[in-house]
Specification:
By secondary structure, this protein is α/β, with parallel strands linked by helices. It is built from eleven helices and 14 strands. It folds into two domains: about 60 residues, Alpha-Beta Plaits (2-Layer Sandwich), CATH 3.30.70.1140; about 250 residues, Aldolase class I (TIM Barrel, Alpha-Beta Barrel), CATH 3.20.20.70. Helix content is about 35%, strand content about 20%. The chain has an eight-stranded parallel β-barrel with strand order 7-8-9-10-11-12-13-14, surrounded by five helices. It has a four-stranded antiparallel β-sheet with strand order 2-3-1-4. A two-stranded antiparallel ribbon has the order 5-6. Helix 3 runs parallel beside helix 11, helix 6 crosses helix 7 and helix 10 packs parallel to helix 11. The protein starts with a strand and ends in a 5-residue tail after the last helix.
Length: about 325
C-alpha cells in the first residue's frame, strides 16, 4: 500500500499515522520527495482501515500495490535512487563506469589495469578474487590474496573496488575491504546470502539470474532491502535463451521495464552478455542509449593469456576509445561520464 500525503503534512502528523499503521502489525517507510511525502506500507495491509486513513485531511490518496516487491517499487519511491559509494555514486545523471579484469591475477596486472582504466575515465575498478566457474578444474581466483591485491590497486589509484561475493563465510571480509559487493547471476536467488547482505549497509550490485524474470530479479532486491539495506544496484548481464552464438542474450528491454517498475539504478554488463570482445563497444553504446545508469566492462591488458574470460575482454586502448564515444553519447542524453 502507498499513502500519499499532502505536501503540508507536519512531522507530528506523519508520526501519528506511522504509529497507527504499526499498531496493526505493518511497517511504514516514509519517502520525502521535493513536493510530496509518501508512506510505503509493508505487511498485511488488509488489517488497515482505508477509510479511516483517507478521512485524515493531510492524506491525499491511498494506492494499493499489486506487485509483491514493495521497497523496490517505484510507487513507494517515485524518484530515482542514487547509491553513494564514498565520494562517488551510481544513479542520477552521471554514468557509473566500472572496468577491470574478470579476475585478479597478480599485483602488477591489477595495478596496471587500474591505472589505465582510471586514466580513461572509469569511476570504479572491478576484479574477481573468488571466481564461480562452470568447471571445478578452471581457475577459481586468488581468493583472499586477490582481495589484498585489489586493496593495493585502490590505494594506488583511489578507485573504489567491486568484487563478487560467493558465500556467507567471507561476508565479513568483503564488508571490511570491498566498496561494492557484487552478487553474481548464480547467487541471485541465494536468499540466505541476500538476507545477510541486508544486514549490512554496503552497496550491493545484484546481477540478474541466468533465466530470471524481471519480477524474480526485483524480488531478490527486495530480500536485501527488506532487511534494511536499500543500497541496491541492479545489473542486466544477459539471460539464457536458445541462442548459442553469444554467451547470453542481452535483454536491453529489461532496462526500460525496470526503470518503469523500480527506482533502483540499473547497470549493464555487455562483456558477460555477449562473451565476445568485438561486441562490447556497440552493446555498451546501446545500453546507454536505452537509459542504463552505467556499465561494467571487462578490460585486460593481455586477453589472449587471461586466466578467465579473455575472449570477452577488451584492451585498455579500446576501452579508452569507447569512453570517448560514450562521453559524446552521454551528452546527447543530457548525462555525463
Amino acid at each position: 500500500m502507498v499513502i500519499v500525503l499532502n505536501p503540508k503534512a507536519t512531522s507530528e502528523q506523519i508520526n501519528e499515522l506511522t504509529q497507527e499503521i504499526e499498531k496493526e502489525g505493518c511497517t511504514a517507510c516514509p519517502t520525502y520527495g521535493s513536493f510530496q511525502v509518501i508512506l510505503g506500507v509493508v505487511g498485511d495491509t488488509s488489517k488497515l482501515n482505508q477509510d479511516r486513513i483517507l478521512i485524515k485531511d493531510y492524506v491525499e490518496k491511498v494506492l494499493k500495490v499489486q506487485e509483491p516487491y514493495k521497497k523496490a517499487n517505484r510507487c513507494f519511491h517515485p524518484e530515482n535512487s542514487v547509491v553513494p559509494i564514498g565520494q562517488a555514486s551510481i544513479g542520477g545523471t552521471k554514468l557509473g563506469i566500472i572496468a577491470g579484469p574478470c579476475s585478479v591475477e597478480s599485483e602488477e596486472q591489477i595495478v596496471t589495469i587500474a591505472k589505465q582504466v582510471k586514466a580513461a575515465g572509469a569511476s570504479f575498478l572491478r576484479g574477481g578474487a573468488y571466481k564461480p566457474r562452470t568447471s571445478p578444474y578452471s581457475f577459481q581466483g586468488l581468493k583472499e590474496e586477490g582481495l589484498d591485491l585489489l586493496k593495493i590497486a585502490r590505494q594506488e589509484t583511489g578507485l573504489p573496488i567491486v568484487s563478487e561475493l560467493m558465500a556467507i563465510n567471507t561476508l565479513d571480509r568483503f564488508v571490511q575491504d570491498v566498496d561494492i559487493i557484487q552478487i553474481g547471476a548464480r547467487n541471485m536467488q541465494n536468499f540466505d546470502l541476500l538476507k545477510e547482505l541486508g544486514q549490512t549497509n554496503k552497496p550491493i550490485l545484484l546481477k540478474r539470474g541466468l533465466s530470471a524474470t524481471i519480477e524474480e530479479w526485483l524480488m531478490s532486491a527486495e530480500y536485501i532491502m527488506a532487511e534494511g539495506n536499500e543500497n541496491v544496484i541492479l545489473c542486466e548481464r544477459g539471460i539464457r535463451t536458445f541462442e548459442t552464438y553469444t554467451r547470453n542474450t542481452l535483454d536491453l528491454s529489461a532496462i526500460l521495464a525496470v526503470k518503469k517498475l523500480s527506482h533502483l539504478p540499473v547497470l549493464v554488463d555487455p562483456s558477460h552478455a555477449a562473451g565476445k570482445w568485438w561486441m562490447v563497444e556497440s552493446l555498451s553504446k546501446a545500453a546507454v542509449a536505452v537509459g542504463a545508469d552505467g556499465l561494467i566492462i571487462e578490460v585486460h591488458n593481455d586477453p589472449a593469456n587471461a586466466k578467465c574470460d579473455g575472449s570477452q575482454s577488451i584492451k585498455p586502448e579500446r576501452f579508452e576509445a569507447l569512453m570517448q564515444s560514450l562521453g559524446q553519447l552521454a551528452r546527447i542524453e543530457n548525462r555525463t561520464i
